[in-house]
């Protein structure tokens, strides 16, 4: 019988809560109001109307403040004191929660959810609909923080630099065009990966990449010894001009993709697979021997391919200058490609951005998210190995 009674009571409570959405609102409002009064009493050292020698001040009326909670919008009376001692942390915590909520709603807008649907969702969740102007205001604050991140001073040296670009479709003045998203990742001497810059350009060109790299140097980029990128002509020229003297590694993955342009559409033999195997070798001498054998084997059947490979493959072998355990990480732009894949997955929903600002906002937000995750991880590379490798190279040179 007792069990049955408990079940009935629980069912009744559930029914009450389901039938009256306002059931919890007055309870929460009373609890929060009581919390505010208790905080004021603690600040002044006395309850309202209490006479005591320990009193630190006196009240001076109230002001009203709205608070959006999970059960809806509640109105509160916030006490004030004459000396301005009282300051509650409650609203600071609320503002952080509100900012997280509005940022999530802003992403819903960006990803194509209609204003009407977003308002419906917010009304259902919190009993309050955020206006488009509220979304715009939070976006402006978000833009400022993202810009500050991407323009921060780079104080520590970054011996490794990885550069790449991807394209997003953006509507400008009623015309849909592709915009290049230029991204730079650095590895510092602690072995940590960091997102250094994310910028938009009308296209990849020598001038756009040069401006991008000069911006990095203007922010303090220094100590670069090794750069990885694809074979874009404008990017190559910009690296040579702005980062003169660094070792450049042509991404071998891009190189293998480019090789497809020099063979028939259907290649049924192992020619390209054997070329790919070159990059699994541990020794540069072994690569050169295998390359000579590969050229001799396939030169007759694919002369266009073998001629192109022989002329360009050296640019993809720069990574042999690095410590053995660093090579698999630094012989390609795969580190950045994985970030690009995440960006592509999130921007695919948008398809066409309404303007350049919305595109840059979302891409920067995603890269900052990844940057923070990288900093929380253990170091990506043991840079002590690079220091030892350099010392050994100097000793052998002497």
TrEMBL record:
PANTHER family: TRANSPOSASE FOR INSERTION SEQUENCE ELEMENT IS1081
Keyword DNA-binding belongs to the record: yes
The protein's name in its UniProt record: Mutator family transposase
GO biological process: DNA transposition
DNA-binding found in the keyword field: yes
One matching Pfam family: Transposase_mut
Leader peptide range in chain numbering: none
Taxonomic path: Bacteria, Pseudomonadati, Pseudomonadota, Alphaproteobacteria, Hyphomicrobiales
GO molecular-function term, one example from the UniProt record: DNA binding
Family: Belongs to the transposase mutator family.
InterPro entries referenced in this protein's UniProt entry, alphabetically: Transposase_mutator
Transmembrane segments: none
Its biological purpose: Required for the transposition of the insertion element.
Keywords, sorted A to Z: DNA recombination, DNA-binding, Transposable element, Transposition
């Amino acid at each position: 019988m007792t069990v049955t009674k408990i079940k009935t009571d629980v069912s009744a409570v559930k029914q009450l809560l389901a039938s009256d959405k306002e059931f919890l609102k007055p309870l929460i409002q009373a609890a929060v109001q009581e919390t505010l009064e208790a905080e004021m009493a603690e600040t002044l050292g006395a309850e309202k109307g209490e006479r005591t020698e320990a009193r630190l001040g006196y009240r001076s009326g109230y002001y009203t403040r709205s608070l959006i909670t999970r059960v809806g919008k509640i109105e509160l009376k916030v006490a004030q004191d004459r000396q301005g001692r009282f300051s509650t942390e409650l609203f600071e915590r609320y503002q952080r929660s509100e900012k997280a909520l509005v940022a999530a709603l802003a992403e819903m807008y960006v990803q194509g959810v209609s204003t009407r649907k977003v308002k419906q969702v917010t009304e259902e969740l919190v009993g309050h609909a955020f206006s488009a102007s509220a979304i715009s205001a939070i976006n402006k604050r978000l833009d400022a923080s993202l810009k500050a991140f991407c323009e921060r001073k780079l104080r520590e040296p970054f011996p490794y630099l990885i550069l790449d670009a991807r394209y997003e479709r953006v509507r400008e003045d009623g015309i849909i065009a592709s915009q290049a998203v230029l991204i730079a990742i650095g590895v510092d001497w602690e072995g940590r990966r960091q997102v250094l810059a994310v910028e938009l350009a009308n296209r990849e060109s020598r001038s756009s990449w040069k401006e991008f790299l000069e911006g990095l140097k203007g922010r303090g980029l220094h100590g670069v010894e090794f750069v990885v990128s694809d074979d874009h002509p404008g990017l190559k020229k910009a690296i040579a001009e702005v980062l003169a003297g660094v070792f450049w590694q042509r991404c071998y993955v891009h190189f293998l993709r480019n090789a497809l342009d020099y063979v028939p559409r259907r290649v049924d033999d192992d020619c390209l697979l054997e070329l790919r195997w070159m990059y699994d070798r541990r020794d540069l001498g072994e690569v050169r021997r295998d390359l000579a054998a590969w050229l001799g084997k396939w030169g007759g059947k694919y002369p266009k391919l073998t001629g192109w490979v022989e002329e360009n493959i050296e640019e993809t072998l720069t990574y042999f200058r690095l410590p053995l355990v660093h090579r698999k990480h630094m012989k390609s732009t795969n580190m950045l490609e994985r970030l690009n894949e995440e960006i592509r997955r999130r921007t695919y929903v948008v398809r066409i951005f309404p303007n350049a600002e919305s595109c840059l906002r979302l891409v920067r937000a995603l890269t900052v998210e990844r940057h923070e995750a990288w900093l929380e991880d253990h170091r990506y590379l043991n840079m002590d190995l690079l220091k030892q490798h350099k010392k050994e190279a100097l000793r052998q040179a002497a």
